[in-house]
Design brief:
Serine Threonine Protein Phosphatase 5, Tetratricopeptide repeat, 153 residues, 10 helices, Pentatricopeptide repeat-containing protein, 72% helix
Length: 153
């Protein structure tokens, strides 16, 4: 069984004990030869930590991902932001998104992630986030054709 399946299986087996699952996950922090299995488990551990309301660990996960090579882990960082937003944890999602944008201002994420955050902001009545996201979208030089503008077509 390859490392990715082994780690995912161990995490799932311990889904009723998210603290232990988190410890297992942290022990698999990547070395150059193990980055694939680690990266593939990020959505799983993120959802487990959310269900257990382990927000300190989610912040630690964010710091771990930021410390990894950008080319390898930028998509994982953005996946965590997307999961947080879709799970109703908009404050944490935007905070992590802002951290990502501060660290990598010249690496704008996809329009899809902006749309996801804007949609979650609308659902959460968070006008301040919508304004900031639009400003960042323009600053990043991304096409401003997103879900709000498309709704007027």
């Amino acid at each position: 069984m390859d490392q990715a399946k082994t780690l995912a299986k161990a995490l799932l087996k311990n889904s009723n004990n998210p603290t232990l699952a988190w410890q297992l996950f942290k022990r698999s922090v990547p070395t150059p030869s193990s980055s694939d299995h680690f990266r593939q488990s990020i959505p799983l551990i993120t959802r487990m930590l959310l269900r257990a309301k382990m927000f300190t660990e989610i912040d630690t996960l964010h710091r771990i991902l930021l410390s990894q090579p950008f080319e390898t882990y930028h998509q994982s960082l953005l996946t965590v932001v997307h999961i947080l937003a879709k799970s109703g944890h908009l404050d944490k999602a935007v905070s992590q998104f802002q951290s990502f944008r501060t660290q990598y201002p010249d690496k704008p994420p996809s329009i899809g992630l902006y749309n996801s955050l804007i949609e979650s902001s609308l659902r959460g009545n968070s006008a301040v986030y919508i304004s900031w996201l639009y400003e960042d979208l323009i600053f990043a030089g991304r096409c401003s054709r997103n879900l709000l503008l498309q709704s007027f077509d």
